[in-house]
Amino acid sequence: MNRKCHHAQSKPVQLGNLEEKLHSRSLKITGPRQAILEVMRQERHPATAKEIMAALPKGICDLVTVYRAMHLLEKIELVRRFDFGDGTARFELVRGNTEDHHHHLVCTACSLVVELEECFPNALEQRIAQTSGFQRLSHRLEFFGICPKCQL
Ligand SMILES: [Zn+2]
Ligand SMILES: [Zn+2]
Q1: How many A from CA of 146 to the centre of ligand 1?
Q2: CA 148–ligand 2 middle distance (angstroms)
Q3: Which of 105, 131, 134, 136 is most buried, with most CB under 10 Å away?
Q4: Distance 103 CA to ligand 2 centre (A)
Q5: Which domains are delineated in the chain?
């Protein structure tokens, strides 16, 4: 159950280089954006804009600013957006190392999110690449179910 994925992301980004990445695209790191990245660094699970807002220092910005920042950070691939089917977008920091690759198990009743380190065998992706002629394959995989608490 604890098997790690062996396929690395194609574009490694060092955690410490996030600000540099912003700089290199000549984007200003405003106070709120900096604070949002900091919150996301601490966050283990994909978080909604409201959750990120709640974790920010009081009065640093409003929800609209958070939404705009998330949109921007997603565009420059610093965060990844998830739609778990409950109509609320969730965001997760792209950590860019091999440990970064994981999947989610989502409770459809209470939206609990569990991180899964397990992935399917690399051979499957290689086979798909070979038969299709595609290169640099990646994938997304989300599992849904009812968590133990919601089964009561
Ligand atoms: Zn649940
Ligand atoms: Zn995987």
Answers
A1: 6
A2: 24
A3: 105
A4: 6
A5: 11-98 (1.10.10.10), 101-152 (3.30.1490.190)
